[in-house]
Structure formats: structure tokens, C-alpha cells
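Changelog note: in this version the structure field was regenerated for every chain. One regenerated record is shown below for reference.
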Amino acid sequence: PFNTVQSFIKNSAITVEMQTTNENNIPYYAVEKSVDGKSFTKLCDRESNNTPLNAYNYIDPNPVNGDNYYRISSTDINGVSTYSQVLKVFKASEMSTIKVFPNPIIDNTINLRVENQPAGVYKIKLVNSSGQSVFTKEIQLRGGSSTESFRPAQHVPPGIYHLEIIKPGGAKTSLSLIY
């Protein structure tokens, strides 16, 4: 009865979609999930429409980091079950990180990569090994992940520096970098 079955990540959830044709004598479908691809548990039942062309979907709001496996089962009125192909969706970890690249700094340009960070104003300060502030800047981030590039107006002498970042909530991160 399965015409197409697909799954994809959207906004940190996984959506499983199914289209069927010529449903006859099928009271419901079950969406099943596994984290190892072998042992499946039922997530939900979907009552079938029993019409010529149908579309169903299910949103898994809590996928695990790593591989998530899904399949659809249909059981007809005689109790005979049929399974869709198994769909595998990989969900990357949503760790919050802030990185500087390349390190050592090239051409006096600091590239700051933020991943899964809150929106707001970030205060940036470049501090030399003597504790003196060499450069300060505020940047407005939309939230989520992005890359920001900036250049201190003056030439920064070679050496080891710390890039201090104060997040919107006041949390502080310090990264070592080499000029």
C-alpha cells in the first residue's frame, strides 16, 4: 500500500511522510522507531482514510543524536502486517560552540564561528599576554549558527592573545589565538 515513504530533519525534529494509493481494508498505520535499526517501538497510530490517494505524516520531536530509524507498518482487517522500507536519518549533535579560524590568524582577520548560540549582542575583546585590551567590538547575532569576520583597525604584533566573548546572558568564553 506504500507509494512513497520519506523522512527528513526540520527544526531539530524529524518528519516522516508517507503517501499511499488504493487503500482497501486497512484500518490504520503505525509509525515505528529504532535507534539501532533492529528493535522498533511504536510511536503512534494513524487511522487510514481508505481512499485512492492519501498522505500522512508524523513529527518526532525528540530524535536522538546520531542515527534514527523509522518504518511504517500497515495491518489489514485480516491481521496481516506489511512494513515499509526502513528510513535512516542522522541527526548531528547540537552542541553550542564558538571557534576562531584559522588559528594562527591570517591577514589580521579574525573569523568567529558560532554554532547554536542565542540571539543578541556579543561583546568581543582581544587581549594581549600582558592583559591589555588591543581591540573591542560588539556584534549582533540572529541566533543559531553563523560566521562573523572582523579586523582590528591597527596592526596586531605577533604573539599569543585571548579573545574574550561575553554572550547576551553574561556568560563569558575565552579563546586563545595566535597572531
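Spot check on this record: DSSP finds no helices and 15 strands in the chain. The CA atoms of residues 10 and 59 lie 9 Å apart.
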